[in-house]
Amino acid sequence: MTARLSQRFASLKRANRAALITYIMASDPDHETCFEILRALPAAGADIIELGFPFTDPMADGPSIQKAALRALKADGSLKQTLELARRFRETDEDTPLILMGYANPIESMGYEAFAQAMHASGADGAIVVDLPPEEDAPLRAAFTPHDLSIIRLATPTTDDKRLTKVLDGAAGFLYYVSVAGITGVNAASTHAIESAVTRLKRATTLPIAVGFGVREPEAATAIAKHADAVVVGSAFVDEIAANPNGAREDVVERVLRKVRLLSDAVRSAREIEGTRA
Amino acid sequence: MDARRNWQDLPDSEGRFGAYGGRFVAETLMPLVLDLERAYREAQADPGFAATMADFWTHYIGRPSPLYFAERLTAHFGAAKIYFKRDELNHTGAHKINNCLGQILLAQRMGKTRIIAETGAGQHGVATATICARFGLPCVVFMGATDIERQKPNVFRMKLLGAEVRPVTSGAATLKDAMNEALRDWVTNVHDTFYCIGTAAGPHPYPEMVRDFQSIIGQEARAQILEREGQLPDAVMACIGGGSNAIGLFHPFIADESVRLIGVEAAGRGIDERFEHSAAINGGRPGVLHGNRTYLLQNEDGQILEGHSISAGLDYPGVGPEHSYLHETGRAQYLSATDEEALAAFQLCARLEGILPALEPAHALARVGDVAQELGRDGLIVMNLCGRGDKDVFTVADALGVGL
After folding, report:
1. What is the structure's pLDDT at A274?
2. Is the pTM of this model over 0.90?
3. Is pLDDT above 50 for A278?
4. Is A155 on the interface with B (CB under 8 A)?
5. Which of B26, B286, B304 sits opposite A57 (nearest CB)?
6. Rounded distance, CA B92 to CA B352, Å?
7. Exposed (0-12), middle (13-18) or buried (19+): which is A277, by Cβ within 10 Å?
8. Ordered structural domains, chain B, with CATH
9. What is the DSSP secondary-structure string of chain A?
């Protein structure tokens, strides 16, 4: 389903704007509230959706997403439930790319082939598996290839040129630039550092470059959206759920969507402000 | 068992022991673990590194540790001869310091200026804090808030040694969460920080490196038993949490096919679907956690389970990847002992040998009698007494219903 991703990036390029990639955790705070958020994300301005699948030991995540995983597990969340949410989302939206994101063990437990088949059946487009670096993702790649699913690879501030070659070999969909050495949602990189990193990555690949980790506010999203092909926001949305996880369903949904609209406006207006429209 | 297998060549260049091991870490950490591997290879090739280590073994840690004939225990079981490898006599009271010394000497070679570590019971934390004090390096130890409550004396020890003990409240607030938090710290402080992992697990090269630093146990034991008995033992035995003391004892015997390698896991309140145990091999299945593929306690969705053991040092849901491989190939055998059996062995050893073993090796001791009977009077067993039991007196008193 890389086609859905490439079509989305192609149309964004024509519109000369960056994508907003929104991350939420599956089954946070419960299956149905999560589904209500999910189905409303595209209309609120999400161009691509990352749907996290919960894991007990999220070693690359900051407190926001750690807590989201615990809420999801408490609500009976799992990789299976995540795939079910993806399937239900796809029934409501044919065009918005949906990427699953999480850690290797739930996939190992399901089996790589079974996971790829289930992803294909649910209409998901690709996966980011945080603890499967290129050295370890061969089984996933082998399982994804026949279904045309994308493995989205990560580049970081510690990825030097030699390492980047390795990261790009087999990468598909887009390249996710982790803008800070650290965990999700805590520190933010300077605009200048991000800009030079994006420039460097663009010299090395034709894949779209998405920038994430530590992007919470519209100002930061605007700054990144001037240069990068996509801006990833996660913890900021997850925190909207955390603020009142047991609130009335429509209130929880609306809180998240309000934040998505805010960030979407920031991303959409980024290049207009600069007057760089082609 | 495949006799042609070249055990000494493992892990392979990708850090694999068969299907186990590997480097399952976030991309940010990949350059660091690759760099660590390069630095470790350089240190291995440098005779100066080994010489420095040997000097500290002798004069600071107190090696070689004795090999002791447990005469009264042998008489008690009335079967095979039982020897203890006395690694509880090391400085800081356990085998953990063998590894900390090696890793921190390596950190110094690499120019790292800050050491982090995780700890469960506090033994690895104390050993790391000790070596850091000796070399004047700042040390941060991550410890689950639940464990801090359970292990107050060790927390105070670490503080006396100048370490900062950082409570971990995420997840279940125990050892696995402390390890997650240490990895999060490492990924955030990539330039100056060295992560000193306490067991033979984690991403490559840690399982190999920790095994190598702990192999002094087996090297000494092998030479000592040959000198004392003029023959190799029939079995070597050790407890298994992450399994660093066991792999350290096993590895120098691995090519000696006549020597049975026997690990003893913590069966807690019994190995069943309640998962109130820490027996990853006997009661778990393979998966990926903390940078390696290995046997883990997990549910059907691949979520990691907490496990339980009366011994805080065995209370970890995984096991080092080389043990998973030794299990799968049949080269080593993995038994288990319950909380109750370990407690009984603890008391037996105290009364018969005048040694308070830590609750961890008390698990191994709980199976020594069975193996001794099986081998008969001609048999010869070496068991690793990898830690002393002073730290456990409160736990034992509590379990026996004695108020102190």
Report:
1. 56
2. yes
3. no
4. yes
5. B304
6. 24
7. exposed
8. 26-57+96-210 (3.40.50.1100), 63-93+215-399 (3.40.50.1100)
9. -HHHHHHHHHHHHHTT-PEEEEEEETTSS-HHHHHHHHHHHHHHT-SEEEEE---S--TT--HHHHHHHHHHHHTT--HHHHHHHHHHHHHH-SSS-EEEEE-HHHHHHH-HHHHHHHHHHHT--EEEETT--GGG-HHHHHHHGGGTPEEPEEE-TT--HHHHHHHHTT--S-EEEE-SSS-TTS----HHHHHHHHHHHHHH-SS-EEEESS--SHHHHHHHHTTSSEEEE-HHHHHHHHHSTTS-HHHHHHHHHHHHHHHHHHHHHHHHHHT---
Say if A245 is an interface residue toward chain B (CB within 8 Å).
no
Please tell me the distance from the alpha carbon of residue B323 to that of residue B325, in angstroms, as a whole number: 5
Query: What is the domain count for chain A?
Result: 1
Contact yes or no for A133 and B288 at CB 8 A: no
**Could you tell me if A210 and A21 are in contact, meaning their C-beta atoms sit under 8 angstroms apart?**
yes
**Which of helix, strand or coil describes residue B95?**
coil
Structure tokens at B70: 């447990």
- In the structure encoding, which two tokens stand for residue A260, read together? 């998505």
What count of other Cβ atoms lies within 10 Å of the Cβ of residue A268? 18
Q: Distance between CA A191 and CA A174 in Å, rounded?
A: 20
Report which of B122, B159, B134, B131 is spatially closest to residue B315, judged by C-alpha positions.
B122
What is the C-alpha radius of gyration for chain B, rounded to an integer number of angstroms?
A: 19
Q: Tell me the pLDDT tens digit for each residue of B172-229.
A: 788 999 999 999 999 999 999 999 999 999 999 999 999 999 999 999 999 999 999 9
Q: DSSP assignment of A136-189, as one string?
A: G-HHHHHHHGGGTPEEPEEE-TT--HHHHHHHHTT--S-EEEE-SSS-TTS---
Question: From the CA of A68, how many Å to the nearest CA of chain B?
Answer: 11
Q: Strands A19-25 and A48-52: what pairing? A: parallel
The dihedral formed by the CA atoms of B350, B352, B353 and B355, expressed in degrees to the nearest 10: 0
Neighbour tally for B391: CB within 10 Å: 23
* Cβ–Cβ < 8 Å for B314, B241: yes
Instruction: Check if A105 contacts B (Cβ < 8 Å).
Output: yes
Cα(B176)–Cα(B201) distance, integer angstroms: 12
Of B27, B176, B190, the CB nearest to A155: B27
A78 contact partners, CB below 8 Å, separation of at least 6: A27, A53, A54, A106, B301, B303
CATH code at position A60: 3.20.20.70
How far is B194 from chain A, CA to nearest CA, in Å? 15
The one-letter amino acid code at B183 reads L
User: Which residues of B are less than 8 Å from A186 in CB distance?
Assistant: 188
Residues in A touching B280 (Cβ below 8 Å) = none
Token pair in block for residue B48: 């100066």
The single residue listed with the structure tokens 């609306």 is A254
Going by the DSSP 8-state scheme, the letter that residue B89 receives in this structure is: G
Condensed to tens digits (0 to 9), the pLDDT of residues A60-110 reads: 999 999 999 999 999 999 999 999 999 999 999 999 999 999 999 999 999
CB atoms within 10 A of CB B348: 19
Closest partner CB to B287 (pick from A79, A105, A163)? A105
This complex has an ipTM of: 0.95
Euclidean distance between CA atoms B219 and B200, whole angstroms: 17
Tokens of B22: 């590997």
Tell if the CB–CB gap between A136 and B287 is shorter than 8 Å: no
Report the residue of A100, A136, A151 to disrupt the B interface, i.e. the one with the largest count of B CBs within 10 Å.
A136
Strand partners, B357: B388
Range of the domain at A89: 2-274
CB-CB under 8 Å, B187 with A183: yes
Nearest-by-Cβ selection for A105 from B26, B180, B289: B289
